[in-house]
Amino acid sequence: MVHAARVACQHPAVDLDLRLLAEDDAPAVQAAVVESLDHLRPWMPWAQQEGTEDGRRAWIRQVSADEDRHYGIWLAGRIVGGCGLHRRAGSEVLEIGYWVHPAFTRRGIATAAVRQLCAEAFRTHGIECVEIHHDRANVASGRVAAAAGFVHVGERRRRPDAPGQEGVELIWRLDRGRYASAAFRAAT
C-alpha cells in the first residue's frame, strides 16, 4: 500500500521517516506498542489495554478517516514510535501528541518528530499555533516541548486518566510568528 504522506526529518542527528499510518503498518505498530506498554501505561490512557493486531488495524482504518493525522515514526526501516496532529483546541490550533519506544528514548527522536510535525502543521491553512499538552508528572514530555522551542503558557487541573498522572496538565505553545522567525530557526 502506498503511504499517503511522508514528512522528511530535518534534525541533523536523527534520520527519521514520519508517514501517515496505513493498515499494512498494523503488525509493526502493534509490536512496537506491545514492547512499549510498560513505558507508556503511566501516561497514555490508550495503553491501559494491550489490544490485538486486528484491533490496531481497525484503529488505523478509523483514524485515517478523521481530521487528525496519525504518523508512524520510522528509523532505519523500523517503527520506533508514533505521533500525530490533533484538532482538539479549536480551528486555528493543532495539538501534537507523540510516544517513542523505550529502546529509542533519549536520542532526540521525539524532538525531531515534533519539529517535523510543526513544519507540517504550519503548512496547513489557517493554523496559527501548535500546542503540546502533558501531565506535569511526565517530565520527559516537558523536556521535548522545551527542546523543540515551545513556550510553557499555562496549566490546568484535569482528572488523571492514566496511573502516572497527577492531574495537572501543562500547556506548551509555538505560534506561527515565532516559528517563522530567523532567531527561532537558528536556536532549534
Mean pLDDT: 89
CATH architecture: 3-Layer(aba) Sandwich
Number of helices: 6
Assigned CATH superfamily = Gcn5-related N-acetyltransferase (GNAT)
Helix-strand sequence: EEHHEEEHEHEEHH
Main sheet attributes: strand count, strand direction, barrel closure: 8 strands, mixed
CATH class: Alpha Beta
Number of E strands: 8
Report on the structure:
With 188 residues, the chain is of the alpha+beta class. It has a single domain (6-187), classed as Gcn5-related N-acetyltransferase (GNAT) (Aminopeptidase, 3-Layer(aba) Sandwich). The chain contains six helices and eight strands. The chain has helices at residues 26-40, 53-64, 109-122, 139-147, 176-180, 182-187; strands at 6-8, 16-20, 69-75, 78-86, 93-100, 129-135, 151-157, 168-175. An eight-stranded mixed sheet has the order 1-2-3-4-5-6-8-7, sandwiched between helices.
Brief description of this entry?
The chain is α+β, with helices and mostly antiparallel strands and 188 residues long. It has helices spanning 26-40, 53-64, 109-122, 139-147, 176-180, 182-187; strands spanning 6-8, 16-20, 69-75, 78-86, 93-100, 129-135, 151-157, 168-175.
